[in-house]
Input
Amino acid sequence: MADLEVQNLAKSYDGKTKVLKDISFSVKNGEFVSILGPSGCGKTTTLRIIAGLIPETSGQVLVDNKDITKVPVYKRNFGMVFQSYALFPHLSVFENVAFGLKTRKIAKSEIKEKVAAMLELTGLSDLADKFPAQLSGGQQQRVSLARALIIDPELLLMDEPLSNLDAKLRLKMREEICRLQKKMKMTVLFVTHDQQECFAISDKVLIMKQGHIDQFDTPQTIFHHPRTEYVARFIGYDNFVPVSPNSCQDNYHVKAGETVLTTTEDCLNAKVLTIRPENIVLDLKEATQNTFDGKIINREYLGQSFKYTVESKLGEFKVEEARQKMRSSGDEVTLTLPAKHLHPLSE
Amino acid sequence: MNRKSAVWLLVPAFMGVLVFTFFPLIEIAIPTFQNRNGFFLLYAQFLKSSYNWQVIGRTFLIAFVTVMIVLILGLPISLWIGRQKTAVRQVLNLLILFPMLTNAVVRNFAWIIILGHDGIINKFLLALHLIKSPLDILYTDAAIIIGSVYLFLPIMINSLVGSVAELNVEIEEAAAILGSNPWHTLFKVVIPQLAPGILTGCILVFAGSMTAYTTPQILGGNRHLVLSTLIYQQAMTLGNWKNASVIALILIIISAFSMWIMRRVSHHLDRRPSNA
Ligand SMILES: Nc1ncnc2c1ncn2[C@@H]1O[C@H](COP(=O)(O)OP(=O)(O)O)[C@@H](O)[C@H]1O
Ligand SMILES: [Mg+2]
Output
């Protein structure tokens, strides 16, 4: 396993529109990094350039500080798991897993040993003689993973590997991938459009938007300090309060309309403030700041809690409140936005 | 009416298939075995002649070489056509099939003009001073092979293009990432997946080439007989229908045996259970 570094990567398929614009990031040895973004933002393109399947328009890919941009796919030592699994339909499970060893001209006896060990590790020993068409989706996924891992790749690339599985199996495979990653100390680049999935398993998350990186941080940092409105929306910040331009006087107080709001983070360049629905408090008695009146206009039942839509002079707010108390449409409430949960965003 | 008695409704169709498929064959086969001096006498006589063995050998060789050339030419062409956009692919498919719409006799006469002593090929080679006197191409086995390749290439391409278009390109990409260079991928990943299409194409071309009459008749002349032209000669020129039937049955047996061999080879390439 190795370090990966991507520098100023750009890609255009038709010579006109840039699908990727200046992508730079690095993945350290043994790290699990996810690329998160909506469909069409360029995740697959990034992964395919790193794998060497398509040429970049400009930029470099470095592995352990060596530029591999011009090395053909079959000479790079990577593993890849495809969304469609892409198993060899004419080969048995055993032969599928052995394929990468055969191309490396490894002795037959050694191949047999290694494949047997890998099938054991991935729980496929009983299926060695089956063909891909005889396997379930989860089993095919395992074969695909085993096939990629057996060559001991410097980097494992996965393109939405779980998106064809049902919810329960997804969770199981996710844990399995985590277990193998830790056990084999793999460097992994994992593509997904599912936020929960990616926060659960990643050391770092790279959030992509229309061909560029919006934020590249640990899941905790992204969760508590989204850098842009786009990132905040992506990870469940439902409330956005526009800020009056140049209304920040002392870095911690800012005006939204005529209301002065207090933050604990520097809000000098803030364009908008954001807060998660579960962090807004209703009818807080001892409130002294960031508090104003509102009226409930809608209620949704979420199981553990209710989600209210509240109308106020600063616009509509989504508020999540525990189930003990049920409010109804038309109820008058006071909203409090605790300063430590109110994040200023500059983009 | 219940299910059991409904089966009887199939009887007329069943009889029809039976009569039209097997009756002509049986009609041909039975007389060849009716001989007072031995059951297989006519066959033994036919196989005793070294000339006949020559004809069998030539027939088999021409069919075999034709299949090989058609496959070697057809595979890359099909790989190229099969990977085009659907609209382009349809136009190319039509173009490929176009020669099949012309009359077989006319097509073979065109080859006489091309391959003859005064033909384009000889004129061209003479003009370049590559040869001193015209080559004998027409009325050789080579001429028959050239004509057959031209005749059967569209059939091979047609049976491969569909399979190529259905290939999942990601599977080849997966192979490349696992360290397989493009040639290795072609032989170990692409061709095995195409095995069913290749098998169909080879069987069609082989059977067609074994039984073709017009092409060997026109391009091979009278000194280069194959089994089908020999049958015609026995039946029409010599009026010996029994011998013609013997040859016909031998032709069927050789064809069937060859197809069985091809099937085995194909299964060796692609051992998916659905194909077994
Ligand atoms: N082979 C291609 N030719 C032209 N455009 C493409 C090709 N592949 C992807 N694109 C375009 O590039 C953009 C990014 O695609 P992709 O990398 O597949 O996104 P994602 O994987 O994030 O869904 C999309 O707008 C898509 O239409
Ligand atoms: Mg994608």
About this structure: The CA atoms of residues 14 and 20 of chain B lie 10 Å apart. Chain B has one domain: 42-269. The two ends of chain B are 38 Å apart (CA to CA).
